[in-house]
Amino acid sequence: MNAITLYTRKQGETTSFEFNVFDNQLATENLAVRKVLMAMLESVRHTLTELEVEYNDSMLVEKVGAKKAGELLRFLGAAKENSQEHRSNDIVVSRSFRTALTDERYDYFYNLTDIAQLSHYRLKAGDEDRIVFYFTRYLQLIAPDQQSLDTFLNKLESFSLPYKLVPIK
Questions:
Q1: Rounded distance, CA 77 to CA 102, Å?
Q2: What is the C-alpha to C-alpha distance for residues 129 and 8, in angstroms, rounded to an integer?
Q3: 156, 8 in Cβ contact below 8 A?
Q4: pLDDT digits 0-9 by tens, 45-56
Q5: Can you tell me the distance from the alpha carbon of 156 to that of 39, in angstroms, rounded to the nearest whole number?
Q6: Using CA atoms, how far apart are residues 159 and 38, in angstroms rounded to an integer?
Q7: pTM for the whole thing?
Q8: pLDDT tens-digit profile of 124-151?
Q9: Whole-number mean pLDDT of the chain?
Q10: Which of 27, 38, 74, 151 has the smallest CB count inside 10 Å?
Q11: CA distance to 123, 133, 149, per residue, from 114 (Å)
Q12: Taking 70 as the threshold, does the pLDDT of residue 1 lie above it?
């Protein structure tokens, strides 16, 4: 396997790692892509407290089926009290919700077989993004410190996943 490309940007103690899905030419259900998410999750697990999900009803139903879509959203914490509709010309184009990241919800993301099962999600430390998946375009880790950065790169190596770091400004 060729090395995956990770774009990096450093700002103070924080380092951003971006896995661009198109540049790496791997399907979102590819094991290498899943390992990138797993390494990201393990590197910041100790900081994660919140989950934010944005989804399109019909896209989610197409991906997992109507019954499973409802079950998945309830499991992840979607409720009337924490959900918002996003509209364009009075048409609901997506919905979003924010909730606590429980151990069970963490495990859901860690064991995802297709990282694009949900269109857009953010795993957060309070209000700070730590992991962002954005509409099959990219998967990003915002490592807050050297320990998280080292853990991420060590996990990639332990998964035998070759990588190439490309700094961006």
A1: 10
A2: 16
A3: no
A4: 999 999 999 999
A5: 6
A6: 10
A7: 0.94
A8: 999 999 999 998 899 999 999 999 999 9
A9: 95
A10: 74
A11: 17, 12, 24
A12: no
Rounded Cα distance between 12 and 125, Å, is 18
SS (H, E, C) the chain: CCCEEEEEEEECCEEEEEEEHHHHCCCCCCHHHHHHHHHHHHHHHHHCCEEEEEECHHHHHHHHCHHHHHHHHHHHCCCHHHEEEEEECCEEEEEEEEEECCHHHHHHHHCCCCCCCCCEEEEEECCEEEEEEECCCEEEEEECCHHHHHHHHHHHHHCCCCEEEEECC
pLDDT band at 72 (very low <50, low <70, confident <90, very high): very high
Cα distance between residue 115 and residue 36, in whole Å = 10
The strand pair at 91-100 and 163-167 is best described as: unpaired
